[in-house]
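Bench log, entry 3. Co-assembly request; chain sequences pasted below exactly as received.
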Amino acid sequence: MEKKKTVSKVIATVFIWIFVILCIVPFIWMLSASVKSEAEVFAVPFQLIPNELKLDNYIEVLSGKYSYLLMYWNSIKVTALSVILSILTTCLAGYGFAKMKFPGRDKIFLIYLATMMIPPQLLMVPKFLMFKEMGIYNTHWALILPAAFSIYGVFMMRQYMMQISEELSEAARIDGAGDLRICFQIIVPLCKPAIITLLILFFTWSWNDYDNALFYINSKELYTVNLGLVNFMDETGMQYSLIMAAGVLTILPIFVVFLIAQKYFVGGLTAGSVKG
Amino acid sequence: MNNQKKKALRAAAKGYAFIGVNLIGVLVFWTFPLILSFIISISKWDYSKGISGLSFAGFANYIDMWKDEWFRASLINNVIFTVCFVILLIVFAFIISYILNEYVIGKKLAQLGLYLPYIVNIVAISAVWLALFSNNGPIVSILKALGIENPPIFIADTRYALATIIFICVWQNLGYTVMLFISGMVNIPADLYEAAAIDGANIIQKIRYVTIPMLSGTTFFIIVTSIINSFKVFGLINLMTNGGPGNSTTMLVYNIYRTGFQFGKLEFASAQGIVLLIIIFIITWLQFRIQKRNEASM
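Structure output for the full assembly:
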C-alpha cells in the first residue's frame, strides 16, 4: 500500500512537472531568443543557450534609436502616480465607509458595488470624448486619474477596516485625536496586509495596462512600455530577437515583485480577479 | 435639539470629506461615462456640430447595429469562445489541481510556474505566441519534424484562429484557476475521504462523491468570473488577429473598439457597449439568484 502510494506520487510529480515546464516554455523561449542573433532565433535544431551569449539585443533596445528608455520612464511615472494616488484615496474612502456614520453612506456603498460590475472597456467611447473635453486626452493623466479612484480598492479597504475593533478608535478619540489622525496613525498601520495587496494589485494593473493606453494615448513620446512594445514590433519589422529582448524588459518589474511578494500577489490577484 | 442637528450635520460633512475625493472620481470616471454612453447609444449624431449635434433617435441604433455582419459575428464568436474557454479551463484546472494537491512534490513551486502567464502583460504574451506560431516558428517546425506535411497556419487560418485564441486564453488563466481550486480543496475535511475509503470508494468515486460536491461553491465562482472575463477579451485579439482572418476571431469588446475607434461610429459602439453591459448584468443577476437559492436550500 505504502509502496503503491510512493509510485503514484512519483508518476504524478513527473507528469505535473512536465506540464508546468510546457506552460512556461514560451517564457523560456523568449529569454533564449533575446540573447540570440536574429538568424539563430528560428534555427533548427533549437538551442536553448546559444554558443555565444549576446546582450547586443538589450543594448540595441535601450539605445536611443527606439526611445524605449523614454517609454520605460513613462510607465514608471504613470504606475507610480497611479499607485500612490489610488492608495491614498482608497484609504480615506475605506475609512469613511467602515468607521464613520453619516446619512447615505450605505446607499452610496451599494452604488459602488453595482459600479464594480461595469467592464471598464465598455466606457471607452464616452471616456474618449470626455477626456478630449477635459483636455486630458493624450496626456498621462488619462491613465493616472481613472486608476486613482479604484472602486475595488475601496471595497477591499472597507472590508478590512471593518474587522478592526472599534475600541481602538474610541480610545484615541477620548485622547482628543481627530478622524484624520485616527485614520492614518491607528487604522491604516493596522491594514498593512490589505495595503500591500492593493499596492501589488494596482502596480500590476497599471504596469500591464494596454487597453487604456491604446485608447487614450496618441503621441509616441507619451507611450508606455506596452504601447512601446507594439510600436517596436512595427518598427523593427518583426525582428524577433529584438522584440523578445524588449518583451523581457517589460515583464521584468512584475516578475521581480512577483518573486519577492508572491504571497500577496497570489492572494490579491485572486481576490481582484473579477475586475481585471 | 439645534445642537444635535449641528452635530449630525458636522458628522455628515466629515464623512463626505473622507469619501468625497474617491466618490467624485468614481462619479466622473465611471457613472458619468456610463450615462453618456447610454445617451449616445439612443442618439443620432452629427459629429461636426459637437455636443449640440446629438438628436434623439430612440432605439434605432440598437436595431441598425444588427445589420453589421461584424457585430453578429462578434456575438457568435464570443459565445463559442466563452463556452469552450470555460469548459476547457475548468476541466484542465480541476485535473491539474487534484493531482497537484494529492500527490506532487514541489507543489508550491509548480503552482507559481503555472501562475506566471497570468501576471505577464498581454503585449509580451501576444509577441511570444506570434513568434511561436509563425510560419517558420518552432511549433510549425516541430509539427513538420513529426511528419505532418502541411501543418496548420494557426492564427492565419479561419478554421484554427479562434481555437488558437481559446488555447492561449486557457493557458493564461490556468494557474490562477488552479490556485482557486486548490484553496478550495485544502478546506475539504480529510475524514470525508477516510469515510469514503472505508465504504470502499475508489479514486473516481471519491472525486465524484466528495471532491466535486465539496467544491461546488468554488466551481460556481470560477464559472461566473470566467464567463464575465471571457466577454472582456480584447488585447489578444487586437494584437494577434485584428478579429481576422475575415471576422473569425472578432469579439464583443474588440468590435466596440473597431466600430468606435477605427470606423468612428460612436453611436453603434455605445449601443454595443450597452449590450455587453446587459449580458454581464444578466450573468451577475443569475449568479445572485442561484446563490440565494443554494443558501435557502442549505
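Residues 2-60 of chain B form one domain. Strands of chain B lie at 43-45, 54-56.
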